[in-house]
Amino acid sequence: MRTVTRLAGFAVGLAAVFGTTYGIGRVVDRAPVVEGRHDGDAAHATGEHDETADRLPGGLLVSDRGYTLEPVDAPADEFAFRIAGPDGQPVTRYDVAHDKQMHLIVARRDLSGFRHVHPELAPDGTWRVDTPLAGPGQWRAFADFTPTGGESLTLGVDVTVPGELTERPLPAPATSTTVDGYTVTLTGAPQPGRTSSLTLTVSRDGQPVTDLEPYLGAYGHLVALRRGDLAYLHVHPDGTPGDGRTRPGPAVTFLAEVPSAGSYRLYLDFQHGGRVHTAEFTVVAGATPTGVAPTPTGVAPTPSGPAPTGGADHGTPGHGHN
Ligand SMILES: [Cu+2]
Predict the structure, then answer these.
(1) pLDDT digits over 62-102, tens only?
(2) How remote is the CA of residue 254 from the centroid of ligand 1, in Å?
(3) Cys bridge to 69: 113, 128, 155, 250, which one at CB 3.0-4.6 A?
(4) In angstroms, what is the span from residue 162 Cα to ligand 1's centroid?
(5) Domain coverage including residue 90
(6) Where is the composition biased (Basic and acidic residues) (predicted)?
(7) Which of 93, 83, 87, 146 is nearest to 123 (CA)?
(8) Do both 131 and 231 map to the same domain?
């Protein structure tokens, strides 16, 4: 009886979306995965040409390097999946990364509903977790893991939860947000194809928080999802607890490299008071309001040159008020 509800739910949702009642494993094989192929162009334009730039961002593929993410039937209050290995059998051995063998991240296609959870592995290779899919919608689920003996991978799969869908507009870019009584501010902006420093600063009741607790081996864990295709980006913390230089707040710094211009949603998980909180930001990489585009290595000539003296009225250059 446990599977019937969920199965029926999937069938309804999939029929609505795809006009078919394929099993979910079938449908996910058809997930659109090609679009991101060209995203490396932005990185190339900046002069970067390492192998990272030539590879797809994470999360766009349901199957990569022989490993495939396969959701399995589960009760409605549970999410379950397997990773099929190169031999077709469920993978049962994983390395620990960021304190866990498996990180499951979910978000709706409109970038709402973000959750980052840690499923339990059964001996047969099935991962299970209380469902993080909080209501109806088109969800993307990302499995971030390292199979023992293999490379780290992030595979992604679409999951439909049927019901009334209310598309949420992406919140406007902002440099400050509040969550659970905390205020988190963001300094720095991602630049396509290069590593950028992003610093998130946590305060509460106007006071800086200086006793953040380690979470997943860091004082913060940052995931970025690209609007449009939900490309998934690891954003690595700059420094780890106990390294002699990294303080437990109020500032947590990350090194981010986004593969293209565009809008991204950032999700910062941090722990304080024994609880994990998630602060979200929308950021725009590339075309900034002041029109400053990333330039290739070397110094590009400035279009405006030195300002003429003599007080001639040239109007207001650019768009900003800075
Ligand atoms: Cu995790």
Answers:
(1) 999 999 999 999 998 999 999 999 999 999 999 999 899 99
(2) 16
(3) 155
(4) 26
(5) 2-30+61-161
(6) 38-54
(7) 93
(8) no
